[in-house]
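Step 1: inspect the first sequence and its tokens.
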Amino acid sequence: MLSYHHLSPHLKRCFAYCALFPKDFEFEKIDLVKLWMAEGFVQSKETKRLEDIGVGYFDDLFMRSFFELSNHPSESNKPTWPYYDEFSYEKAQFVFKLRSYHNGKADEYFSQNDNLRSSNLFVMHDLIHDLAQFVSSEIYCRIEDGKSSKISATTRHLSYHMDGPMKSFSDTKETKSLRTILFSDEFFSSKPYLPTTHQHLRVLRLVGCSICELLHSIGNLKHLRLLDLSSWTEIESLPDSIGSLYNLQTLILSWCQQLRELPKDMGDLVNLRHLFLPDQFSGIEKMPLRFGSLTNLQTLTEFIVALHTSDSGRIGELRNLSQLRGTLKISNLENVGNTRPDDIEANLKNKPHLRELQLCWSDYESKDRFPNSRNEKVEENVLDQLQPHTNIEMLRIVSYGGTRFPSWVGHRSFSNLEAVILLDCHNCMVLPYLGQLSSLKFLMIDGCSALKITGDDDSSVSKKFQSLETLIIYHMTEWEEWLEVVEEEHDGEDFPCLHKLTIRDCPKLTTVSHRFSSLVTLTVENCNELRELPRILPSLRQLKIEVCEKLLVLPSLPSIQSLLLYECHQITTLFGSQHPSSPSSSSSPHVCVSNIEEDGEGEFRCLRELYILCCSNLRKLPRTIPSLVKLRIEDCEELSFLPMLPSIEKLVLKQCNKLEVGKVSEFSSLSYLCMKDVSNLSSLPCGYFRSPTALQQLEIYSFNELMMVGLQHLTSLKRLVISNCPKLLSFLPDNDEEEGEGLDLPSCIEYLDLSYCDSLKKLPQSLYNLHCLKELIIKGDVGLACLPKGLDKLTLLQKMQIS
């Protein structure tokens, strides 16, 4: 309370406003600042923007511990996808959309301290929340489940947080002086009633309304400064009366997916600063006339270029919007060709606060299907005219129809450019000179199907891609090779910081021979002609290769930790010493294979996860893999033996008919074992499982010759599955090979499945000793004459299925 009394009056108002939030409510900095601005709490100064002043208020309260960081990250800060999950096209779209939305909405919304990024989520401690409730008096009212709250005549600010739907605004009709109505959760109204009688309203947030109509009377709210209609999933149009809300600062229409058009008088909203439109799934086809009159506009998530311009704003409307910042997406750029040449001038060079620019044409499937209504030269001219300010940090170009990129794309003057994404530019024959971008960290090229050779042909640049960390290449169907040019005077290497490389769906690619001394993660998928990878990748920890049927040998991998191979039919061994020579690789100073042991042991000392699937010619594995924890081998017909695996914990072996499984009995650290169709063994004697005493899960499938199993030494076993073993007769006793009716299965078993073992005649009589058993499943044509006695003693049994 003492710290509250030391706050200045404007900070006291801002803090008390937070009483509208329920306890543990998570909020973003920008959302709260927008509300403060709309309420008039932020005092203007001639030299600073309102947004920056509001951030200063927020940071003051944060530094005084009135706010604290939430333990839950916001969408833009959540961890990325799991390790082996590929960076798919959809994820690229999703990641870009998230980052664009948050950066446009928040990170570039105002200047800020990096430690207090606006995309973070914040909360108030319960005691601080109680203090806000105490000092807020009766002018603030919060209605929530389980708490009685009454809207009084003195109420000025109202928020609604309830699980159930709100049927109407009838409770607010008698309160004529309301300034705030917040509905932070989705609500549903049985009729399109709006609180338009509250003439003093400044903030109206109606999120998730299911009605499809916003009444014309919304225009009566002359003092309204913030209108949030996000997630109105049924609304198709907005009333033109919105154009009379002259004081409106923020209009939020995010996720209004059915919205088809904007109010025609929107150009009258001269005080509008932030406009959030639906994403690319909406049906908006044009911007209203006089849109360029919104010269105070700072946030515009998308500008849609119309096919016909008689009743819609042309791209030239952007010319005078010099205060735009954050993210700008310009869509349907193929329609620019239907306007006068002077209308192409969007003056993006004069927008120094833009950080992310998306330039999007409509999709076309391939170069051969380029629409006759579009002209390559026109599109080249349009892109040339859309050169942004050099402060830009992210550039995305989608479905561009030109055969080349203008010189500004990749020009070294764009020293702040950190990310470039080129999607579905099917006509493009040559990549722009991106290697000279000093800050470029992320590059994605997807669907540039006419490209045959990648590389930066600018000979004036001696070191290329000096900051690049992530490179993703998808669907380059004509790309044939990626060779490194090694020159004597070349000081240093290209890609010195590259950590992640993904190449996918490049069916003609034969060679990748670049040096990647810092590469940590490499994914190569669906490159059927690929024969050669770099000879050594000294820093690589994670390698995934799928459907590369002509790849002969792997690189040398001294640091590898996780390796996955799928449908690499020409690979016979994991060792890198048989790598084919090439001029580029042999001249590399990084290549050194003299320390690789002949049997490959030296290469895989760090390997912890190994997955080998459908590699039909693989014959040889290293003799020992000391650190391996997980091993999965499937459909490897020629593989006949397993390495020594002193650290193995999880082992899966399937469809490997020649594989000898005798060494499995020596793996003392094993906790999970699954074997399917890997051996012609007729029995697994008791001594077979003497060493893996830590085994907790054992699954045996399709052992056609297996007749007997001994399990007594598996004292930690909790899950046992023996399925589709048609000759299985019984379990073995400890002392001989005869059937023992007194045999005890491991007493800690919780799950027992003996399905499709058609020759099984009896179960151990001591089955009733399995006091931990919860599930017993026996399926198929099992020849059991009777069940053991004493099953009523299995007090924890929850499910028994015998069919």
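Step 2: inspect the second sequence and its tokens, then contrast the two.
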Amino acid sequence: MSKPPAKRLYRQTSILSSYRPVRQASGDCSPVDTGCHSGKPELSSAHANRMDEGVAASAASAASVGDVRDAPEAPRSVNRDCAGRSDHTEDQVAHGGEDKCAQPSPEDDSESTLPIPIDFDSDDAPSSCSPSLAAKPATVRPCENSSKLRTSPPFEIDLGDIRDVKNVTALFNVNDIKSGEKRPPRPWPTDYRDYWDNNHVRLPCSPKNLMLVGKGDNRSETSRWKVIEDALSRPLQNSWDIEEAILSYNARYTQRWNFDGLHQFFDPAGDKGGADRAERALYLQTTIPAIARLVLNLPHLIPGGIPLLKKSQQRTLFLSQLQVASLLACAFFCTFPHRNSTGSNSEYASFPSINFSSLFQGDRGRRSMSPSRAAKLRCILHYFQCVTSNPPAGVISFERRFLAGAPQWTSSMFTLSDLFVADDGTIEDDGHGMLQADFANKFIGGGVLGRGCVQEEIRFMVCPELIVSRLFMEMMLEKESIVIVGAERFSFYSGYASSFLWTGPYSDTTPFDKWRRRNTTVLALDALVFHNKAAQFKKPALTRELVKAYCAFKRSTGVPRDYQVAVATGNWGCGAFGGEPYLKALLQLIATSAASRQLLYFTFGNSKLSTDLLELHRALRANNTTVAALWQGILTYSQIYPAPAGGRHLYSFLHRRLCCDESGESEGTEPLSSEGTDVAYSEATELPCSEECVVPCSDEAELPLSEDTAEAAAACLDDSAPLFSDPGEDMGSPAPSSPHLLAGVTRSEDVSRRTQTSGDEPGTVTTSGE
């Protein structure tokens, strides 16, 4: 295949040379807007008719001009459902020499050599395609004596300091941000600099990106980028053209990759569960060519090296939204070298996949496309339609956070932070201005490019800019988390897992900070997988999860305690990962308290958990319970009950231990109660010691017992008599001859004594294996 003349190629690759921002009038629909009215967007014949009107005009324009200037706006999507159902199925980079890509001084405002002029008619920063559909706000129940949720913008680096901040890289001209101009910042440096090493992303446009062509003795090396340019400069009129283009520079995967999902989505008959006629016309005539032009502009949009954010390092990368779009376009066309092999010995074995080949595969045993996979492709194509028809002017930061040390939990005197609980609503819909938890896989994004379709994958699909983090983020270790600020939301959605559907466009009106990042902060923290419910109550697992949460929630440097933004989270690691929601809520409460942050907890319809959590929190706060006391209470529970009966059992234990006086009476608070049942607290009566009790109860016990542990042993209850009964929860039933008692462990020590007791200190009995 021969390369087209350079002049012709340049004209086709200048994707922004004729762009004009689309002004939005409030309440007006674009030709393909499905969501300007109130209520749920319609995906009916009316929707198709509106799309037809826009496609007819855009097709004629694209055929004659070769750009997407007049392309209609396409629908967008975002994560709305069950954001709390959980999860899914080395050295620091050197900063010497050219790697710093020194930014220009504030006085140096010379024009960039980027051959892509960008003119904006509007005084406002470009916004995405369509008006937002109204989402019903969550009903939030605050704890008593709580202050208002803090939702102020996150901590911001001073604009003049980024050039001197170690481990911070910006690949755009920071003066463009500082000047306040409402246009995409120009890339920096001004000329392309190649980085082909183990510390940087290997870009497709690198001169060192070579491939073998020919057969037998006629095989020779050629530039893979030239093959990519040639393949993507040709018309891509259907899914088979897309497959042929991708395989032309990925020839070794011809027999390994299948594009059945992509073919089903663009099937002309429209009976394979994919795009309808109007969508096919829009995507194939307008969107796909625009994505190809984004790829071909890569050397101009990303002229500097992208550092790999590796394990055990603290580092931040700033990219413009337009740069992110170019990188995602490269992923769409599977152009990133060395990123297709997933073997344990491959170069990027510890990194997530990034090329979209797995997203294009079909579902085994299905002749038509699954609705969730079709929804993923709609999310992605809608995103590209938006950013190519109306180029965004924002910035996104990607921070890898490494925790060198953790608080001494057994001596922490922080009191518990304010708690707000919501039965309904979602993190992304109702956590505006807060730190929003992403229940992540250790490989960020999890199965977003495959079959995965739960909390993290859905969030990444409705905010596709998050996907680019997979390009440079190595898998997370125990004391690491990832913080992404500024990603835009593009879509509404419904359903969860196999029922996930794209339901319409979303216009993100979140305000920008001084760095022109949207005030949306996503915290990625990965949980452990528990196949055995009891394993998560062991001290090593408890400590690991607490440290992980604290690493994500820890205080922002330089921000006073009373100005730390609240955390919006939920049942982290409690879906496929097998976590216990009652326990995870407490661990996250401890972490936010140590980080001086308020906690907004979404239970996603679990009203029982909402009520129990608020009641326990109210009791703990009334007794001035500290982080140390609550942590020690959880550890003691794990020692006494090696096979925990359930989360409500844990809450009853903590209420008795930390909130009751020696007579078993609750101090200033009402006791926890089950639905429709008043639970009484009374003195513990003599009960036979359970065979599974880890503390010997005879007078001849040889182990030295602390006062706390001795009390716990004396109050040991039979496992058949749960502390917190609930007819709907399988926790066993009380023994017929024994009343249902909730007074086992009393609170005989003051707070200062409790905070000095550790499960690792002499005189404390621990279970085997801890």
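Step 3: confirm your contrast with the notes below.
The first helix runs from residue 6 to 13. The chain has a mean pLDDT of 75.
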